[in-house]
């Protein structure tokens, strides 16, 4: 798959498929464009709906370079990768959808570079975006653990299992998690003016409260996916239906 070189010299792999309005998809922690968006049917669904899908592998993930130093990560740096990718492709402005960590990156972009974001879809993330992820240290330690038996905490165990299933670089993931999550403030979110949809599974115990987050973002809509947790909501047909309906409503307004 194609890749480009970032301003700090890393190769970021990406999928660029379909024609139409550009839609940037940013995957979650320990995932990849393939796991998050291709194998779940998102790319096909978006292409069939008339969107050009841009789906990178975040640094430390998938086919992209994976440094083992926390200094190479963080929301600002990972967000800059996305802006540099859009510049590389000659895209001035795009729809953006992120899931979990990817939603955090996308929202940081919406705050820091709103001129680049046509609309924002926040998946698998509620007010943890503001409150912070309290289990980050456990997850990072879980990635560095010599075996599953040494991993502490159910969330950390879940991410370790997922990382092994996706064939991820565990030390790169530890560095990514250790870099921090730079929480956004209510004041920052209150200045967003683009259309926003928040999509979270009803059984998601990682995301935080989606309704509480929606109250901080002017005009934000929410879609709660019944009987789905953090890992299962992303590929659910109800999630796709909610997102596609939201995007179609923007077309009607335009």
UniProtKB/TrEMBL annotation:
Domain of life: Bacteria
Molecular function per GO: triacylglycerol lipase activity
Domain AB hydrolase-1: 22-122
Gene Ontology BP terms: glycerolipid catabolic process
Pfam families according to UniProt: Abhydrolase_1
PANTHER family: AB HYDROLASE-1 DOMAIN-CONTAINING PROTEIN, HYDROLASE, ALPHA/BETA FOLD FAMILY PROTEIN
Protein name (record): Pimeloyl-ACP methyl ester carboxylesterase
Organism phylogeny: Bacteria, Pseudomonadati, Pseudomonadota, Alphaproteobacteria, Hyphomicrobiales
């Amino acid at each position: 798959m194609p890749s480009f070189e970032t301003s700090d010299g890393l190769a970021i792999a990406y999928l660029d498929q379909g024609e139409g309005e550009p839609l940037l998809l940013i995957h979650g922690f320990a995932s990849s464009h393939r796991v998050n968006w291709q194998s779940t049917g998102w790319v096909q669904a978006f292409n069939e709906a008339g969107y050009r899908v841009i789906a990178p592998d975040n640094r430390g993930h998938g086919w992209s370079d994976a440094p083992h130093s926390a200094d190479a990560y963080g929301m600002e740096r990972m967000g800059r990768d996305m802006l540099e990718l859009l510049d590389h492709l000659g895209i001035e402005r795009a729809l953006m959808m992120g899931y979990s960590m990817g939603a955090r990156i996308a929202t940081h972009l919406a705050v820091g570079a709103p001129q680049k974001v046509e609309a924002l879809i926040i998946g698998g993330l509620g007010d943890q975006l503001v409150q912070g992820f309290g289990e980050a240290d456990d997850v990072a330690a879980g990635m560095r653990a010599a075996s599953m038996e040494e991993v502490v905490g159910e969330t950390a165990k879940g991410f370790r299992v997922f990382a092994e299933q996706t064939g991820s670089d565990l030390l790169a993931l530890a560095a990514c998690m250790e870099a921090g999550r730079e929480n956004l403030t209510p004041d920052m979110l209150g200045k967003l003016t683009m259309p926003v949809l928040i999509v979270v599974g009803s059984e998601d115990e990682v995301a935080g409260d989606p309704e509480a987050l929606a109250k901080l973002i002017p005009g934000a809509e929410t879609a709660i996916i019944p009987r789905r947790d953090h890992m299962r909501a992303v590929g659910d047909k109800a999630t796709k239906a909610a997102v596609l309906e939201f995007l179609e409503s923007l077309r009607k307004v335009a």
